[in-house]
Amino acid sequence: MANLQTFFIGLKLRNPLIAASSGLTNSIEDIVEFDKYGVGAIVLKSLFEEEIRIEMEKDLAKMNKESFIYPETMDFYDGYDEVDDLLSSYLKLIADAKKSVSVPIIASINCVTAEKWPYYASNLQDAGADALELNIFSLPSDFSHTPEKDEKLYFDIVEAIMKQVNIPVVLKISYYSSNLASLVYRLSKTGISGMTLFNRFYSPDIDIHSFEVQPSYVYSSPKDLPISLRWIALMAGRVECDLAASTGVHDGEAFIKQILAGADAVQVASAFYKYGKEHALKMLTDLEAYMDEHNFKTISDFKAKMSYARADNPAAFERAQFMKHFAGK
Ligand SMILES: Cc1cc2nc3c(=O)[nH]c(=O)nc-3n(C[C@H](O)[C@H](O)[C@H](O)COP(=O)(O)O)c2cc1C
What we know:
Number of helices: 12
Helix content: 25-40%
Structural class: alpha/beta
Mean pLDDT: 90
CATH class: Alpha Beta
Order of helices and strands: EEEHEEHHHEHEHEHEEEHEHEHHH
Strand order of the largest sheet: 3-4-6-7-8-9-12-13
Distance between the termini: 49 Å
CATH superfamily: Aldolase class I
Largest sheet: 8 strands, parallel, barrel
Shape: globular
Strand content: 15-25%
CATH topology: TIM Barrel
Bound molecules: flavin mononucleotide
Radius of gyration: 21 Å
Number of strands: 13
Number of domains: 1
Low-confidence stretches: 66-83
């Protein structure tokens, strides 16, 4: 019988299926259910940098209140009483999760700057998180920025975080970059343990009658798979950190494809929204059946078999034109 156990960012996982950060990983009940349905690890819903900042400002306000230095600021800070200690709740979620399940718990922060808040990352580590995923979305759309300026954000965040924690750090990025391969390669050498390719953020759509910009699809579809599949295949075995695939994995077959492409782990969110958390069981059963069918005893027997570095026809991952369609007709 196939052995699904594997290693990701130095953590031993019972299998490479990870419940990605989403609204489904935000409560202890959900975490316990994911554990029951067999996932290998769970990434908690992201704590947003803005939430950490509010906590920091509350601390500051408390200090000021005690010393009566800036009493006029208190009116402003009092408004934050409604914010129910988000950071404290998050730390409690980590601690409760660690008590309730044995699978690794990966805390997540959604970051947009490298300023000040990284000091708080150590709190997540102290609460018991096994690793930290940094969800960074940078849209390089400013004409006045050079590619170097846009990329600096990633390196600044990594540098600031690595000073604060010694648990494994994973960087989750988007594919918006002027030189993605080079960026992934250089980030992989910063000391991070892994990268997640790719995150999924708000994308705009246009209502042609109301002339309003509105959110497009929140969930991915299986048609979104090829982008992450291509980049996992191109990067696997050529960068200096582990890789988790994310986006468009909706079934066992897509899960297997990502491992063949070279993913050390595979993160899933939308399919769990669509089919329920129990879908994890089906995906794992499919993986096991596939391994038995091909006589693969362990994950490493076939991981990266179809990656750019090892495939018989690596150029297929770099092909940019549909020759058959564009040249032949
Ligand atoms: C409703 C929803 C909420 C999400 N929230 C987060 C989040 O807080 N942090 C994060 O890093 N990713 C978040 N994601 C992105 C997922 O973790 C995942 O990277 C993305 O959806 C692509 O995977 P999928 O195709 O399996 O959905 C969210 C996705 C969805 C659908």
